[in-house]
């Protein structure tokens, strides 16, 4: 909004112009005639609005918390995708540095915030790995890129100047036949009625724990032996085939279902059951060393490799969009090929080397 006032100044008149634009400080100027005042008003209104849309200006006004809110709103309306884990990590960033304006999100502040995240103990009391910290960093970098490219609130992403933590080669820990039998014996007799079917589904499909636990009966077709994972890590829906013992266990669970909504309901039927305690006990009672639930996913992939599946087929089963994440299983494939050829040679040549 602009106003021009005619005022007396000694023996002559002057024109005082005032421009007010929401979100900007008022600006005033005085001119000897109305024509100059009008010209100044028009130019000033344009200048103020342009400044408001300049990244340099917006970065001093907008906070990281506002970026996070804007991103979540777009996720809610289907314009962007984000997994539950990603949204939770956004909440951590919001709590730590969400109040800072974007101009204050410097490489040094990012580095120190990552150290703060590292100091936060995990639910089990362990220390976060470099891989986990890099996932947090990736979420922040994506938010800042969003602020640059889609919101226009930043000129450049300060995270680009921060180095990621070094990561070891991907861990591959999978169950031997003996370990698998011991684990299944323990989960089958667990007090938790959900543990056995959850573990069977994990081993036979490679689905993640959160993907399995968030299953609803409407997502499961027991006649076809198929389930649709609505909440996956990368935000996409993915189908998994239920076969053999896993399908039989889910069919039995359906007969005795405690909820018409959730396949693995908590006591309030408000969401999935927490299997952490029963899982930890089963692993301990089975005598497994250095074994996590996520290793059931590696177990599935390893079994697929040893039964002739290609890396491309494994990527499709596990829901990976590229082969990069399944390259860790290549050595298992090579080892298995060697053992197959060795057995063939033993059978044909009787173990002769000449």
List key phrases describing it.
elongated, hpI Integrase, Chain A, 354 residues, 14 helices, 3 domains, 3-stranded antiparallel beta sheet, DNA polymerase, domain 1, mainly alpha
Question: What would you note in describing this structure?
Answer:
With 354 residues, the protein is mostly helical. The protein folds into three domains: 2-52; 64-161, Orthogonal Bundle (DNA polymerase, domain 1); 177-340, Intergrase catalytic core (hpI Integrase, Chain A, Orthogonal Bundle), CATH 1.10.443. Helix content is 49%, strand content 9%. The protein has 14 helices and six strands. It has helices spanning 34-52, 55-58, 64-76, 84-97, 107-119, 130-151, 177-188, 195-205, 209-213, 244-255, 276-285, 295-306, 311-318, 330-349, and strands spanning 2-9, 12-19, 27-31, 220-221, 226-229, 238-241. The strands form two sheets. The chain has a three-stranded antiparallel sheet with strand order 1-2-3, with helices on one face. The chain has a three-stranded antiparallel sheet with strand order 4-5-6, with no helix packed on it. Strand 5 (226-229) and strand 6 (238-241) form a beta hairpin. Helix 3 (64-76) packs across helix 6 (130-151), helix 8 runs antiparallel to helix 10 (244-255) and helix 8 (195-205) crosses helix 12. The termini are far apart. The mean pLDDT is 85.
Helix content: 40-55%
| pLDDT < 50 stretches | none
Count of separate structural domains:
3
CATH homologous superfamily of the largest domain, by name?
A: Intergrase catalytic core
